[in-house]
Structure formats: structure tokens, C-alpha cells
Amino acid sequence: MSTAAAAAVAPAAAAGTWKLGDLEVNRVGYGAMRLTGNGMMGNSDGTPIDRDVAVRLLHSAFEQGVNHIDTAAFYFSALRSANELINRALASWREDVVVVTKVGPGRDPSGEWFTVARPDQLRGQVEENLRQLGRDHLDVVNLRRNGPGMGSVSEYFGALAELREAGLVRHLGLSNVRPEHVAEAQAIAPVVCVQNSYGLDWRRADESGMVELCREQGIAFVPYFAISGLRREAAAAQEQDTRVHTVARAHGATPAQIRLAWTLHRGPHMLAIPGTTNPAHLAENIAAGALRLTEEELALLDKPGDTDA
After folding, report:
1. Contact predicate 272/289, CB 8 Å
2. What predicted TM-score, i.e. pTM, was given to this entire model?
């Protein structure tokens, strides 16, 4: 079977594709944070899976059509680096995979967080991602805005735009931003994606108009915490929402799949990046792209939540 034919039947292709600049990806991707046992905010610490197991998991994702991986140099624990694992997996994989990383925040080797990098320090962060991933350029780099310390993004995004002109970065995006930040960045260089927290129970990106703004401007919206919701980096809790259970039963699907499917139904520009270290959950997450929710089911899910289940 040819590569094109294989891609056509791959589960991750069921939800369709979107372009990050000139890079076409299947709308269901993979977030690499959980590969490390990460401890990002102290509520998701755990023993990371074996390196070879992690590489096999990534290869399984690729085999199922995932060609969009989200990562960062600050996704690491004492034992694992997400970038290093991705580097290993891609070294023995022949097909193209778009790797999206982010800069702005940073951690020292002990895991302690730095203050947000200055604009003149972003090149160092880009070069660290290049080194860890073993690449001569980065496909997409998102400027991650962390807290009020970065009011305007113009100077930071301008620094990244210079690295794009120099060939170190192919495309640029934003993370954890508001609509006014998109406008600032677009005045400097094209924005191909926006990564914000978003899901069935956390819809600030709807309230701010961000989801619609991205749709209108042809920018990919890439929600994180789409399954875990308010638990953020922690694993999703047992589903308590009767709306989700009702729709899941109708499709013979898991609640997590319904939450992902709901997200993908918000528009053709929505990309999913669920992360897991469980091969069965990986397959379920990818299969969620094939679910087609009815207008009635979407209306039910859009009603206020009910946790009587």
C-alpha cells in the first residue's frame, strides 16, 4: 500500500486535515507531556514509562496516522525528556511528522521554573529544542505567554520572527493568549496556530471570541486539557457528567472520546493533541476523530453540566 493510500485509511485521518502554514496534518495529533512523568505543576508526577516503550507508543501513534506532535524542551522529569524520546522515535521512522514545540517558559535541570525568558533569550531556547530534537530547523514554534509578566507579545514574537527569517523556524504560533495578542503577532509575521486551554467544561476561548477569530483567519486552534479539563496536567477524573454519558452510550464510545469529538466538532480548524502513555487509550483517542455527533447531541452537550451520574 502506498503512503498516500495508507494515510487515507489511517484512523487519525478520519477527522480530516488542516494546514499549519504549508504543513498538512491530520486533525488528531498527540501531546508528549505525559511521556516524562513530567511533574509540570506537581499534580501529575509519576514514574515515566521505559524509553523503548515510549518509542513504541510513538511509533504506534504514527502508524495510526498521527503526524502532529506537541512538545517542549521544558517537558522533562529527572529521568525523561519528551524531546529526546521524540528524537529517538523519529530517527527510526521514515514518514514526515510535524513537531510543534514552544518557548517562553523555562526550567533549570532540577525542574525549577525560571521567570519567562527575555526576547533576547528565545534564540537559546529555540537552539535547545533543535539540539534535543536533532533537527536543523523547527517546524512550528509557539510563543507561550505565561502570566502577566508578558503583557504585549510584540517584542517576543518579533524575536521569533527573526529566527524564522534566519531559517531556524519554519512557522510560528502562540499559546495561552488573548485575541489582542493574535493581532499584535499577525502584524509581525503569520500565526499558524493558537494553543489555549479549552474543553467542554472550560470555554473561555468561546467567551473571548478566540475560537471564532481563529476560524475567520484560518488559524488552527489547538486546545489543551480537552479531556482533563479543570484537572489540567492531572489525569482526567472518572466521568460524572450525565450529558457525556448519554452521548457516549449512544455511540458505544468512552466519555473521553465524546469530549474529544465535541472539541473537533467546534470547527474544521480545531486540532486535538491528547496525551497518554496507555496504548489502549491512545487508540481510543485517535478513534474519536471518526465519531460524528448529531445536532441534537451537540445541543445536549452545550447545555449546563449535570453531575448526577
Report:
1. yes
2. 0.90
Cell numbers representing residue 214 in the block: 481563529
**In this structure, are residues 282 and 66 in contact, taking their beta carbons and an 8 Å threshold?**
no
Q: How many angstroms separate the most distant Cα atoms in the chain?
A: 56
Q: Which is it for the CA torsion 241, 242, 248, 249, positive or negative?
A: positive
Burial of 89 (C-beta count, 10 Å sphere; 0-12/13-18/19+): buried
Please give the Cα distance from 147 to 117 (Å, whole number).
Answer: 12
pLDDT at 59 over 60: yes
* Mean local confidence (pLDDT), 245-252: 94
Q: Could you say which of 30, 75, 198, 224 is catalytic?
A: 75
Q: Look up 224 and say whether it is catalytic.
A: no
